[in-house]
Amino acid sequence: MTRFDTKLVHAPAQHDNNTGAVTTPIYKATTFAYPKIGAPVKDDYSRSGNPTRRALEEQLAALEEGTAGFAFSSGMAAIHAALAIFERGDHIIVGKQIYGGTFRLLHQFFERWGLEITAVDTRDLTAVEAAIQPNTKAIYFEPVTNPLLQVTVVRKVATLAHQHHLLTIVDNTFLSPYLLQPLAQGADIVIHSATKYLSGHSDVSAGAVIVKNRELAKRVYFIQNALGSILSPEDSNELARGIKTLSLRLDRQIANVKELINYLRGLSVVEKIYYPGVEGQPGYQELHQEAKGAGSVFSFELTERVDPVKFVNALHLFKLAVSLGAVESLVELPSKMSHAELSEEEQLAAGIKPGLIRMSVGIEDFHDQIADIQQAIAKSRK
Ligand SMILES: *Cc1c(COP(=O)(O)O)cnc(C)c1O
């Protein structure tokens, strides 16, 4: 069988052109002619099926070891589609620390449409099992959470879910299929904000849903075609291109994170580091039961002696921005940026202190990344 790094470049095989082009053409056509009435055609209308998007969707399915993949105009559109397979009165158990946009979609949209939701810490299997009701249909979670990088073992949750005939739905944005393949661990549906690692260059908004079997593929395809939040042929092409270097980028990013953590660990002004990818950190054992690494995002807290707002303002190489996983280094303060929607009490309950700093480490030379952190600490000492 072809190995992962080869699949990144060669899945899917070229089969829809006879020009010898080694990449999939961008098919801009919105409609495709029938040879005659009643004749079978592969595509008839671009929302329902587009060859460029299909090539990407086959690539996504191959990388996640799934039966079928579906590409959407954003991660949120993908999550909307995956959850829209449920019905009024269905109950879903969701991870307590899920992405803010997902939290909003669940509580301000899906609840209005009659979905019941219970949030639990999915690291605690007893709590997950206790939340199961007669109308529960699925367990939805992120194996590595944002911004504290708490680890849930997919296999454990999926085993429990199967015992109760529930679907396991995993938002794998934070790890990517290079580091974790949730379907191979027993999950049924995998979701990505492809805006992050998969595209990798902060220039495409996209989402993906990959499913384990034909029955789920039918249900998600129905929603994709009915709701229509598809990925454009141009963005499908850019995303497919980004995917080819996924493992190269991540190898460098992870190596850089390890250098930065090594450096930060030696500083007396660093109070705490959150990153399950290095030994001795919480979640390390759990993560490595099934994943190859923890990705390029890590968080840390500085002691009282450094002003965290001044620190992030003083960074140059690390751009002050939300999002993650791309080639350039980014930094953000969750309390004031990604998690600003939560009240101070809610933030503290979620473990997000005002001074918590989250970095997404890019592929630059780590010496320059360290030098940037060093000068910013010097400028922000009290
Ligand atoms: C960014 C993100 C999303 C939402 O994706 P968009 O592409 O921004 O719509 C969902 N889940 C996680 C874990 C994310 O980081």
Automatic annotation (TrEMBL):
<protein>
    <recommendedName>
        <fullName>cysteine-S-conjugate beta-lyase</fullName>
        <ecNumber>4.4.1.13</ecNumber>
    </recommendedName>
</protein>
<keyword id="KW-0456">Lyase</keyword>
<dbReference type="InterPro" id="IPR054542">
    <property type="entry name" value="Cys_met_metab_PP"/>
</dbReference>
<dbReference type="GO" id="GO:0008483">
    <property type="term" value="F:transaminase activity"/>
</dbReference>
<comment type="similarity">
    <text>Belongs to the trans-sulfuration enzymes family.</text>
</comment>
<keyword id="KW-0663">Pyridoxal phosphate</keyword>
<keyword id="KW-0032">Aminotransferase</keyword>
<dbReference type="Pfam" id="PF01053">
    <property type="entry name" value="Cys_Met_Meta_PP"/>
</dbReference>
<dbReference type="InterPro" id="IPR015422">
    <property type="entry name" value="PyrdxlP-dep_Trfase_small"/>
</dbReference>
<dbReference type="InterPro" id="IPR015424">
    <property type="entry name" value="PyrdxlP-dep_Trfase"/>
</dbReference>
<dbReference type="InterPro" id="IPR000277">
    <property type="entry name" value="Cys/Met-Metab_PyrdxlP-dep_enz"/>
</dbReference>
<dbReference type="InterPro" id="IPR015421">
    <property type="entry name" value="PyrdxlP-dep_Trfase_major"/>
</dbReference>
<keyword id="KW-0028">Amino-acid biosynthesis</keyword>
<keyword id="KW-0808">Transferase</keyword>
<keyword id="KW-0486">Methionine biosynthesis</keyword>
